[in-house]
């Protein structure tokens, strides 16, 4: 039986909420419910400037309230610079440091206030920090499926950057559909070419979607060889820097439903998932 890794992203779902601050206890309660589901990884928080993402300013405190004894899920924290990576690396509970690297100069500036050249230097330092602290780096290739900001984009550019990141030592590379521009054709082309070309890299799909296009995107990625998928329950969130209210995260329940139909193993416990889904309805009013 084929197996896929599902990565649940409550951080991605929560970070863009600006109307109110979600209490630390509520965040921890929700993430604890997710930890019981059987997800491979929980993208639970970020060590970034509180000015940039106020909602994530309590990530360290949330971490202290998580029940990690009865779970096999691993924790991932997003970092945007060297200081964030150093902070995250001090916590033994965190397995992965996630770094958003954009092949769009415009978007990299919007997202991290750094140029692509500066970002490559930062990523190199983060890889060193991770190595010293027994962590792995998940690099997100944002604008991986297209670019609405006018920067040059092509599948060849994506391939060139994959080659550069592979040479730097990146072992997990998640292609990110930052503003939902991907099409099944581009998804198929990229994964079917990249996956066999880089057998030492674990490729992931961080797809954003409109309510009507989720199936074709999952289907294209899976059939082209992708075995790692990011999602967020009910598709909450998306990228706060992308500013498109129609585009949300890939709904986890759609991923679970798709892989159940395909008879693919996800390790998701149906009862625990239902419980976490109900907790999400309390958090995201």
How would you sum up this structure, described in words?
The protein has a single domain, classed as Aldolase class I (TIM Barrel, Alpha-Beta Barrel), CATH 3.20.20.70. With 285 residues, it is of the alpha/beta class. The chain contains eleven helices and ten strands.
Task: Give me some keywords for this one.
285 residues; alpha/beta; TIM Barrel; two-stranded antiparallel ribbon; globular
What topology emerges from the helices and strands here?
Elements: E1 5-8, H1 10-14, H2 24-35, E2 41-47, H3 59-64, E3 74-79, H4 82-89, E4 94-102, H5 105-112, H6 116-132, E5 136-142, H7 155-168, E6 172-176, H8 184-197, E7 202-206, E8 208-209, H9 214-223, E9 228-231, E10 248-249, H10 252-261, H11 270-283
Parallel strand pairs: 1-2, 1-9, 2-3, 3-4, 4-5, 5-6, 6-7
Antiparallel strand pairs: 8-10
Helix pairs in contact: 2-11, 4-6, 7-8, 8-9
Sum this structure up briefly.
The protein has 285 residues and is of the alpha/beta class. Helix content is 41%, strand content 18%.
Q: What's the CATH class, please?
A: Alpha Beta
Distance between the termini: 38 Å
Tell me the CATH superfamily. Aldolase class I
User: How many distinct domains?
Assistant: 1
